Amino acid sequence: MDKPQDGSDAMRERVLEAAFDEVTHWGIERFSVQNLAARHGIDRTLIFEHWVDEDDLLLDVLLDGPGRSIKPPDTGSLHDDLLLVAMAMAAYISTERGRSLQGTLAIGNRDQFRAGIRAQVWQRRSAVMAEVFDRGVERGEMRPDIDPRLVLQMVVAPINMRVLYNNDVADEGYCRSVVDLVCRAVAP
């Protein structure tokens, strides 16, 4: 049974939902706590009881989904681990919430404002997957001279392209094809 939320937890969730709304409506560049507080009727001091600053809140919102829920799989093979990652990403980005946040991360940013936030999201997501690639190298399934972040980009970029830009479905067959190609490209 879930424990009941205290007022602080409930306020934190309310702020996160309001911040999600702001980010998906206005984008990363135009996100501000001041506007969030005004539009959603939330006292700014309550917001800063949970987050150090505006960027800390923004980062928390952007790490939704894969940044929190994907744990590094350990199926015994790099191919199958990457297939699980690809399928999880495809499932997430196919939801309204996932599509909104991933679109905010992947699209736009001409002036590079808050580029550091986007970089932090990517670094945290890729750091979670480091052990998948370490195990792949140890098993002889991946060359050790390849940057694991590049491999992860090779897996998720086509899914982003297919769903966000082409408005198409990234089903299991598509994910399997991407992973097959990536595994061939990184094999010793």
What is the CATH superfamily label of the largest domain?
Answer: Tetracycline Repressor, domain 2
Radius of gyration: 18 Å
What is the number of strand segments? 0
Structural category is mainly alpha
Can you write the helix and strand succession as a string?
Answer: HHHHHHHHHHH
Largest sheet: none
The fraction of residues in strands falls at: under 5%
Q: In CATH terms, what is the architecture of the largest domain?
A: Orthogonal Bundle
What is the count of structural domains? 2
CATH topology of the largest domain: Tetracycline Repressor, domain 2
Taken from the alpha-carbon principal axes, the silhouette is: elongated
In brief:
This protein has helices spanning 7-26, 33-40, 44-47, 54-62, 66-69, 78-93, 96-106, 115-128, 130-138, 148-165, 172-186. With 188 residues, the protein is an all-alpha fold.
